């Protein structure tokens, strides 16, 4: 079964809308990843989907204003946390060292991790080999010190920055090349799965999700549109 993660980012504006969205996206194999403030409300309505958080800190408690700890998330029945999203790497200056600490803290609390990696356009312009080298460095650094048994609780999302819908001058990726890079990542590390994120929508979902080397999708923009999102889910598993 493929995994479809709905990364709502900093949306929607009200808990009521979040609840409606969660109900419309509550399918087996789906991970709903709302902003922190809606976690409890979303959890209370989900019957089939799993719950994820968009970020996590590396300490459990202490003087860390604004941070959310792994144990707090665990106690809210969160199963997955995102680490390494390119938006946080780029706009908040999150480093591989910080990402590595988050991943280790989350795993030691029993949370599963969705680690995002992906190259900027300048790297990709040098060819697919450069992109693979870039991603290799990210993965090596981000998973440094993670035990083999814990790596099985990590899902890697390949998200080329230039293909994410909100990137400046976003460009569509070529599914065949996305699959080639996902296959490359699978050979590099033994993780639970490798999924793809980069403007996955109802129209292109089959082309990405139909490939054996792509274990699912992390969906941003289109996860805020229930009808489109349902079509993406049904491209992975026929909806009953
Ligand atoms: P997108 O976002 O589907 O809007 O491209 C994916 C992501 O950034 O997680």
Could you explain the architecture of this structure?
Pathway: Carbohydrate biosynthesis; gluconeogenesis; Carbohydrate degradation; glycolysis; D-glyceraldehyde 3-phosphate from glycerone phosphate: step 1/1. There is one protein chain. The chain is α/β, with parallel strands linked by helices. It has a single domain (3-235), classed as TIM Barrel. It has helices at 15-24, 39-45, 70-75, 86-91, 96-108, 121-124, 128-142, 148-151, 175-188, 205-209, 226-236, and strands spanning 3-7, 30-33, 50-53, 80-83, 112-117, 154-158, 193-196, 216-219. It has an eight-stranded parallel beta sheet with strand order 7-6-5-4-3-2-1-8. The longest helix is centred in the middle third of the chain and has 15 residues, at 128-142. The protein is globular. 2-phosphoglycolic acid is lined by residues 7, 159, 164-166, 197-200, 218-222.
Task: List how many beta strands DSSP finds.
Answer: 8
How is the CATH topology named? TIM Barrel
The SSE order reads EHEHEHEHHEHHHEHEHEH
Q: Beta fraction of the residues?
A: 15-25%
Task: Count structural domains.
Answer: 1
Count the helices. How many? Answer: 11
Tell me the helix content. Answer: 25-40%
Largest sheet: 8 strands, parallel
- CATH architectural designation: Alpha-Beta Barrel
**Strands of the largest sheet, in order across it?**
7-6-5-4-3-2-1-8
Small molecules bound: 2-phosphoglycolic acid
Taking Cα atoms only, what radius of gyration do you get, to the nearest Å? 17 Å
**Average predicted confidence as pLDDT:** 96
Globally, the shape reads globular
Low-confidence stretches: none
């Amino acid at each position: 079964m493929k995994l479809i993660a709905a990364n709502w980012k900093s949306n929607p504006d009200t808990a009521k809308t979040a609840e409606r969205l969660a109900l419309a996206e509550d399918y087996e194999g789906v991970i709903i990843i709302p902003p922190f403030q809606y976690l409890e409300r979303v959890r209370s309505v989900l019957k089939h989907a799993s719950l994820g958080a968009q970020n996590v800190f590396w300490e459990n408690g202490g003087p860390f204003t604004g941070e959310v700890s792994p144990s707090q998330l665990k106690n809210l029945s969160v199963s997955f946390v995102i680490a390494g999203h390119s938006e946080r790497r780029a706009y908040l200056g999150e480093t591989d060292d910080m990402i590595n600490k988050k991943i280790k803290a989350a795993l030691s609390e029993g949370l599963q991790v969705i680690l995002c990696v992906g190259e900027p356009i300048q790297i990709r312009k040098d060819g697919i080999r450069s992109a693979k080298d870039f991603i290799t460095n990210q993965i090596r650094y981000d998973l440094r010190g993670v035990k083999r048994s814990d790596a099985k609780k990590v899902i890697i999302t390949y998200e080329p920055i230039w293909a994410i819908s909100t990137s400046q001058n976003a460009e569509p990726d070529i599914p065949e090349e996305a699959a080639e890079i996902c296959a490359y990542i699978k050979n590099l590390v033994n993780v639970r799965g490798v999924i793809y994120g980069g403007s996955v929508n109802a129209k292109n979902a089959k082309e990405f999700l139909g490939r054996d080397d792509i274990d699912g999708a992390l969906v941003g923009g289109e996860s805020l549109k229930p009808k489109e999102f349902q079509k993406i889910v049904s491209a992975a598993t026929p909806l009953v």
